[in-house]
Amino acid sequence: MQKEYTVTVYTEDRCGITNRITVIFTRRGINITSLTTAETEVPGIYKFVITVMSNRELLEKVVGQIERLIEIHRAFVHDEDEVVYQELALYKVSTKSLHNGDIEKIIRDNNARILTITPDYFVLEKTGHQQELIGMLQKLEPYGLIEYTKSGRVAIVKWSRRFHEHLKDLSLLEADNLKD
Amino acid sequence: MQQKDVLPMKSEDSDKREAATPEIITGAEAVIRSLIAEDVDTIFGYPGGAIMPIYDALYDFQNKVHHILVRHEQGATHAAQGYTRAGGKTGVVFATSGPGATNLVTGLADAYMDSTPMVCITGQVAAVLLGTDAFQETDVIGITTPITKWNIQVTRPEDIPGAIAKAFYVAKSGRPGPVLVDITKNAQVGKLDFQYKACDYIRSYKPVPVLDMEAVQKAADVINNAKKPYILAGHGILISGAEKLLVELSDKAQIPVASTLLGLSAMSTSHPNYVGMLGMHGNYGPNINTNEADVIIAIGMRFDDRVTGEVNSYARQAQIIHIEIDKAEINKIINADVAVHADAKDALTALLPLINKADHAEWLETFRAADRMEEEKVTRKELYPTEGQLKMAEVVRLISEQTNGEAILVTDVGQHQMIASRYYRFKNPNTNITSGGMGTMGFSLPAAMGAKVGAPDKTVVAVIGDGCFQMTLQELGTIYQTQIGVKIVILNNNFLGMVRQWQQLFFDKRYSSTEMINPDFVQIAKGFFVPGRKVTERSEIAGAVKEMLDTPGAYLLEVVVEQEDNVFPMVPAGAPLTSIRLE
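^ Those are the sequences you sent over. The predicted structure of the assembly is below.
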């Protein structure tokens, strides 16, 4: 059944690794709906969080083919229930709209915060799930929204036990052992 | 500013080290010396602008490294594949940037599909020019990412030895495959303090799985309780060197063994438990009995669609034991009841002592009965025709008989490939070289060339279709220049035979663009100073094969065969194995 899944991939820091991962999705015609990557707490190890609409059976195979890549440590597929996740959105709104008292209520109700204010515009930040971010977008729309942008997903796995320890263990190992 | 990269990297530090070890050399020389350190003595390649410094360095090492100048870079890749599969050493290819690099694509894809180790080294424009559409610049890393096991671009001379060390390690270890090292020109001309270190560990790469003894025990239990066990032997047997263990397993529990196309020669064709080839044009018994076995032991194979036919009806009745080194292949097409994620040799070594002696004579007899049916309906008239035009199969039979099955058979793609694979009687491991997964027409002439270089003491016979031959025939130039004694047999039916067969069977005989109006192949060979002969008559063929084998050096034998012959048995594409047709 097609539904949204989160794929997480732990990789070495290597130019071109994103391409290596994404072509495996492309080959099977799976569209990536968001992709976030950043270095983990261990320097030199990166984590990718990829969201896709697909089915689990297919994604298990995709993950297997990703794991086979030389510079990949591990890859996992998770459904919605297996991860705690957040996305972040920024909203740039005309400062004039601040004269309207409703804006304050929108900010409060959404637990949003103001990052900057200038005479022309101010920028709000909100984290949450996509629907919540879009919900606030729709509320701001009538008040002179200038620009909206949203991040991909960051996710933490509910069933993980010792990812942090495992990454620290990795950091103790040399990337390779080119031997004398 | 970026020009800095081009200059020799010399810090005060490296000046001091130079005093201790006077090994400051160019990146280009480091390439050659790294290859020598990896025990490379043969390179297939083609020079060009961006790889000229490496070729210049090679000039000084001609006594250590033999460079074979091919006529097209694709030929270099297939030659390297043949070299590896015949001789066991990793093939090495040189090509220049741009078109040189793009010409490697087919060979890389072929080697990737067929798990063949190969190290390709391409020249690249200087690092400062990368991404600028410079002359002969192409994004070879981007292009080859999906068709290499690993690739890397090197832009600094000091990174060359490490990159090459990793390349060999990745290519050879685990499930082997091709790798590509792209070296920018500035890295070739820049200098480094050379010290070669081999690589046998990469943090993120676990090529040899830890054997799960529980899974092995479970596999043994399933096999020991089987009434109709059946081994499917794949290329992995040959790659891991598990041929003897395969025979031991089969002998001990009297298990019939069928082979995939690439698994051919893992077990001698004449072994009593060997039952034939799997697949679309495989033997009748092996296909039909796939849906009769109660336990299937698949070793080092990946359930290609040409083997399975329609997946949903494939071996539903059987418990599947899948022994496979590449985890991504397990449960990819066919779900395994017992998955043994391991190298074939490791797995069989552990499995054998747990297997009980058994006798499955009745089960084996069902294969023999199927053989008799195939013999009557197909094989006999293919192998021993008495009238009509020459048949591909009888030519293959004669080659097989006259070489005593000891020659290395190199085949191309299509009807002649299926016929040769069906009827050649393999005696020794690694004597079958063909393009399996990719089905690359034009593979065999350069691959045979490489095979002969890799195994110079063996007779190497390339069996080629008339269509395939014309895809890479320029390699006759390499064969002449390098004096490679490969025997070339063109089975000429003046058609793209396999496509024509499909058109006949599935497209209402509408022969769209499959007829070939061919040149005089013997004259072409003559132009390359390769002797040859054309045969059209049955009375001449045995003598002609003998003449070919007796003539020292390269020889081309063109055999005009029946034009509209079909290969049977045949499982129609995507159909269940039970729908196999004998005629």
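The first helix of chain B runs from residue 12 to 20. The radius of gyration of chain B is 25 Å.

Shout if you want it in another format.
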